[in-house]
Description:
It is a single chain. This protein has 419 residues and is of the alpha/beta class. The chain folds into two domains: 79-134 and 265-417, 3-Layer(aba) Sandwich (Rossmann fold), CATH 3.40.50.300; 144-260, PCRA, domain 4. Helix content is 40%, strand content 12%. It has 15 helices and nine strands. The chain has a seven-stranded parallel β-sheet with strand order 3-4-2-5-6-1-9. The protein has a two-stranded antiparallel ribbon with strand order 7-8. A hairpin with a 2-residue loop joins strand 7 and strand 8 (336-339).
Amino acid sequence: RDNLVVVGDASQSIYRFRGADYRNISRLKADFPNLKEIRLERNYRSTQNILTAASSVISHNTNHPILKLWTSVGEGEKIGLIETHSGKDEAAQVVAQINKLVEAGYKYSEVAVLYRTNAQSRVFEEVMIHNSIPYVLVGGTKFYERKEIKDLIAYTRLFLNPQDSVSRARAEKNGKRKLANYEAEIEDKRGLKIAPTELLDLILNTTKYLDNLNQEIEEDMARIENVRELVNVASEFESISEFLENVALVQAEYYAGEKKGRSKNVVTLMTLHAAKGLEYRAVFLVGLEEGIFPHSRSILDEEEVQEERRLMYVGITRAKERLFVSYARMRNLYGNNNPAVQSRFLQEIKPEIMQTVFSNTGNGLIQNKLTEGVRIQYKDMFGEAPRTKRSGVRIDSLSDSTLDDFLSGDISVDELLSR
Length: 419
């Protein structure tokens, strides 16, 4: 009765969407005023440069106490920055850096690639398959094995072959009336040259596939993002048959890998949420762009941004020896190439502890401000524009000059919301 021990770190509170609240720690102090606090600030895992990166990011959170981490491990390597032109280039360069680590004596199993959303796994899966890099997807299903992806592929196959009984049976499970509407729509289009993205749009419109999904629900949002990623893949191909051939090749590699048996020496792919509590000699934090990380749904709500920053902190502190951060200047979103803006979290890492390990953008180390002259139309990239819970401001209600000021780093989130 007189012995209560509570262990926690407000900086690692990352499950707000499940009801977790970093304020529970401060409430505990209020409920037990004689509580003795012991701050465990010595870190036995990471190098000092990694801890400095973590501290420089999380110090921008002002709503909760922050530990001052230190270590006797040593300074270690600088944080490696990978700047690429596209998301596909990003995945290719991450794989190239992994190969360099392996050549230097690292095992694949000592390396992890961490991303904000499950949909981001697709391009890394494919690049690793094409480069014969063994990997395991933790806490998720391989991209082309996800329900929504298999459903849409079934509809796509029926366009080329209406006699495909397996695809027909799968499509019927989503509703025979929806299938009938779809087939009525494509009847006079068979034999015509239709782009894969055009067909996917037709499928989504005639079957109303996304209508019952709620963007405010985490699992539904993940499914929506997976569908959008499938459209991104489709945009890389001119014909439906080429698109389906690529899908079949990747699926064949899935099955071939399963047949060989699972090796323990594999690169780990997983979301940042799934990585909590784990550690790796080398960690890659990928997709560090505004709208991806921090997520588009969080970008105009300061509480949500601070939650995203805690997630970044968790990701950084998974690394023991090497930490790499990456972003792309252009991102294929819903079949369209859009200019991207590097994440504010990258800007918050002290430049003196970073070094560029690859850049095909011509920009080298991160600038002090977000890339100037680049605008992101969030309403085009992510469908509904994000709404802040504090004021109801929407991206599409802002003037172009105000949005430019925000994306260039000239005004803060609070200043944006006050306009």
